Amino acid sequence: MTRPKIYLFGDSITEESFSVGGWGASLAHHFSRTADVVLRGYSGYNTRWALKVLERVFPASHGGDGGTGTAPIALSVFFGANDACVPDRCSAFQHVPLHEYKQNLHSIVSFFKKRWPTTLVLLITPPPIDEDARCRYPYVENPQGLPERTNEAAGEYARACIGVAGECGIPVVDLWTKMQQYPDWNKDYLCDGLHLTQSGNQVVFEEVITKLREEGLNLESIPVDLPLIADIDPNDPLKSFLQ
Amino acid sequence: MTRPKIYLFGDSITEESFSVGGWGASLAHHFSRTADVVLRGYSGYNTRWALKVLERVFPASHGGDGGTGTAPIALSVFFGANDACVPDRCSAFQHVPLHEYKQNLHSIVSFFKKRWPTTLVLLITPPPIDEDARCRYPYVENPQGLPERTNEAAGEYARACIGVAGECGIPVVDLWTKMQQYPDWNKDYLCDGLHLTQSGNQVVFEEVITKLREEGLNLESIPVDLPLIADIDPNDPLKSFLQ
């Protein structure tokens, strides 16, 4: 059989999702005998840059197996944390205005819906921001001493992302809201005010699994690749491998 | 660009390699912007069963991208822990005689060398066995109360695996020897006398990375997929995305 694929497309929170306890690795482990989880995370990228590279990240099939011709069963689109950088602070070059972020997300979703009409496209909102921690762990020189991301801005982009999902009729994980339902979200879920701890990764994993299941995609709905050891007859193992 | 692939083919120690701290996930994280790490682990399988399913796990290209037509840059073959089950104990149905194990490994390597002459095929020996722990954590009913795997047998299969690597002129990770160089290997590296702890997974990851590097395959030798954030000009970011 050919295993179905699940693509993870996003920024650093996707690129780092195979670190220890990462949500991408957890998905790959969860689907270890059923689907391939393919990492397409690009640290620092916003939706403007994502749009520029979309055709290169997901090239059309070209006869061999090098392209991405076969429709994946699912694909996550997880951008916004960089778009939401404050425009007049130290990471301004990553900022994308809110209305353009919405347009870009629409364009990205349309690209996938046109390429792969059957694929479950799942949006994920940016996480909340711990501004104090963002001042303590700057990524670039920060002479102003002000956080380059704010939780309020992240919330606006999260709501915009939810709006796009609604307009496109596709599911969305509202990570910004979900995480803030826990009192110590800023310390338990975030390691530097933006990126995820193991617990934060676990939240993303569980939310993604839940959304996939709501859309009919779970371990029971995907064929298992080759007989499980529990289904192999100890008295005649080779019987399981007749074609 | 199309990312190169690294396949991980093996038994449960491969199938579980994307659990928290797993060696497969660590590889995927290490190569997060350069190569796709593809999981093909089948719990409980020995080399006899692996041979039966080889064509199904790695189907020839069939025009679309569903096959495995493009040569991966590397592929690990990690079997032997099940072949080495003691023939007259409770997991006897997984046992494969030593001479057949060698023949099977040869056949598996030949299959890949014929299919993909340029692919770096890496053998990994079975890990050492903690027999006391194997009695405490039985996988099947064990009325005899004897360990279904012994460290001595695992060592014989490990030496056979190293022999095959030598005969084929391909690299091998001697996990059986490497792990036993540490005094508390049985507690630190193994969680049930056979499968790996996070520390044990780390050993596999480091050994695999080292072998790949010795064979010329490392982060510097594989092109990065799209510009890194550090290489994007903050004053003119879009310049980086001109084709």
UniProtKB/TrEMBL annotation, chains A, B:
GO molecular function annotations of the record: hydrolase activity, acting on ester bonds
Keyword Lipid metabolism included in the entry's annotation: yes
Keywords: Hydrolase, Lipid degradation, Lipid metabolism
GO biological process, one term: lipid catabolic process
A Pfam family the protein falls into: Lipase_GDSL
CDD domains, per database record: Isoamyl_acetate_hydrolase_like (cd01838)
Keyword Hydrolase: yes
Family: Belongs to the 'GDSL' lipolytic enzyme family.
Protein name, entry field: GDSL esterase/lipase
Source species taxonomy: Eukaryota, Viridiplantae, Streptophyta, Embryophyta, Tracheophyta
